Target: TetR/AcrR family transcriptional regulator
Amino acid sequence: MTQARAVHGIDDSPRGRLLSAAAQLFRDKGYERTTVRDIAAVVGIQSGSIFHHFKTKEEILFAVMEEVIHFNTERLRAAIAAEDRPVERLRALVRAELTAIVGDTSEAMTVLVTEWRCLNADKQREALALRDIYEQLWLDVLADLHKEGRFRAEPFIMRRLITGMTGWTHNWFDQSRSLSVEGLADLIVDRVVGEESEEGAA
Amino acid sequence: MTQARAVHGIDDSPRGRLLSAAAQLFRDKGYERTTVRDIAAVVGIQSGSIFHHFKTKEEILFAVMEEVIHFNTERLRAAIAAEDRPVERLRALVRAELTAIVGDTSEAMTVLVTEWRCLNADKQREALALRDIYEQLWLDVLADLHKEGRFRAEPFIMRRLITGMTGWTHNWFDQSRSLSVEGLADLIVDRVVGEESEEGAA
Amino acid sequence: MTQARAVHGIDDSPRGRLLSAAAQLFRDKGYERTTVRDIAAVVGIQSGSIFHHFKTKEEILFAVMEEVIHFNTERLRAAIAAEDRPVERLRALVRAELTAIVGDTSEAMTVLVTEWRCLNADKQREALALRDIYEQLWLDVLADLHKEGRFRAEPFIMRRLITGMTGWTHNWFDQSRSLSVEGLADLIVDRVVGEESEEGAA
Amino acid sequence: MTQARAVHGIDDSPRGRLLSAAAQLFRDKGYERTTVRDIAAVVGIQSGSIFHHFKTKEEILFAVMEEVIHFNTERLRAAIAAEDRPVERLRALVRAELTAIVGDTSEAMTVLVTEWRCLNADKQREALALRDIYEQLWLDVLADLHKEGRFRAEPFIMRRLITGMTGWTHNWFDQSRSLSVEGLADLIVDRVVGEESEEGAA
DNA sequence: CATGAATGAGCTTTCATTCAT
DNA sequence: GATGAATGAAAGCTCATTCAT
Model:
């Protein structure tokens, strides 16, 4: 029995502790290779007891994804609300997403990407609806920048390039190294709107 | 029994057909959810016969990864050899990697990313050594561009941003749509060296 | 939570409502496929609360059987007491047993037959002792008829043929159809003492 | 590992031995209380091996029922074909059914009645279609007798009374006692067409 | 090399029963 | 008495792997 690290947006109820443990295990071993016994062991209960909280193993996976989308959608909203200028909104979004991916919700965010296929079709549709809300926040800001002429590509394609850049960080970014989340965010913003300092130099 | 699409770099031997089928199934259903019976059925043999060609199921996964890395490392070498100027070499690399991911070796490339965790530690190390060769080709070209002052970030970080952008395409890019591999490659190159040069050229 | 139909011989106490619900569920789904949660849900309590009334699930089954035997043994006694002539006593017994099986105690009577095996050896012995009393009432009447020469077979064998005929009715008899319990009882009595007497009476 | 008694109509293949063992266990302990491990143990294989022969446990139950219906339908056909006079055909049918129930196919016949509910709706329908063929053989003979005026009740009701009488025998009939299958069959035939000797005496 | 029956460990899930509140 | 979370021992079923033919 190991102590599960708390995951932001998940409280200390039995259900919350179960979700934390599941997120961590699903990320580390994958959904299929993680057994309900594994999850139960981390939380310190018997495997049968899990089914008082979730009807199936898949429901645990869905709950992990649902909660992390909700939590980070709110984070995105707050990030946008705190800034006026589109380029600063973009920077806030990138920082928020990076924090989600390599920071407080990293386990669940990784699971969201890597274990997507393990949801059945119905649950995928349901989760997709939630992701659409999240994505729309990005698209709105990118559309503003596009209108301002800050980049040429279609906003929805630019979003996909950004998704790739931020999403891949869970495979390499280490906050303890020299590069900070803020530094990395600036780097990514530069990929979208060009290197500001260059402009400043021009 | 379905006819497995040929995968570039894999010949028509029984072993080759097995790898093709495995790559496709591993991508579509995931390594864990794919049974050796599934693979055997596609090739038209019995499940027991698979073990005359591969000692374990994991060995099949490893072979898929190994072959696709080898094949695409050669593709990268050819791409670099065909160009002189660093920026054109970069463009050639991006095109080559995009072709690998969304084109002829898409199944195996996706598997390389999504099922990495299913290899045991030893095999991961072994495969990593092969990937390092592949990655070094990228880093060399990026180092040249960096020396030329075409971007400011560390080359190895730039490579990771590119990896994210190209790697994610398997989730959205559809060659039948308006955007071509070449067009997308240009877009990505712009993210690295800025859009100015094009404007300047125009 | 559904309203359980009252079963004759079982009062409206919590225990009585539990037995009614159990009888119905055991008949409809079988003892093994009925969970204590099912029973609790029908009565409107939690599953844990059942064990304040019965020590085990099997005890519920036993109680259902015990009560229905008692109730119908009394019904048989009353039927015999109301008639003088052996053949009319037989008719009364058949009517009483049919009423038990397709009428007011049909659920519990069906359970008595179909779930007998689910009792452990001790409980089977105990229930058998009660059934013996019930059966003796039949055997006495049949012995009288046999002495009168109304049929040739051994009374205990004749009883078994009757048991088969009446017991099977729960699989087909539908009171709402043309055949009444009384009509069916006459038919069965004819199987025992022959159709001649009726003809003679006509 | 116990030796499973051979059941008529089931050969000595692995599948046949599995069905024999299952029929016996299902009768003795009931379908729900019999585990696939129980069945495997009797046959002397591992539990997992069962699923090479049957996809599910329920499929085993269905196969037991299907085979016993087929086998005994043929037995009924042969019985009818061997006699000309309706009353002798009836006697042959009763003997055949009694043999099925207390003789060579007793385990499976009992299972057919007692575990019917354990089949899902689809399989019940399928098995019912087979039973209808079996039942029609009975109804035809009974219709002939009815036309001859040998009994007054509707043939289909008479069949149900007979079903009850023969079906219940598995609970009490012991061939080693004084009453033989032939003797019991005569007794039952008398319940249908009246006691012949009485007529002879008249 | 191919077969396919068999293995056996391991999986998710169920459920009667317990017990602190 | 009632609650309902927790238990823990099964259950049915899956599947990579083996091996005699």
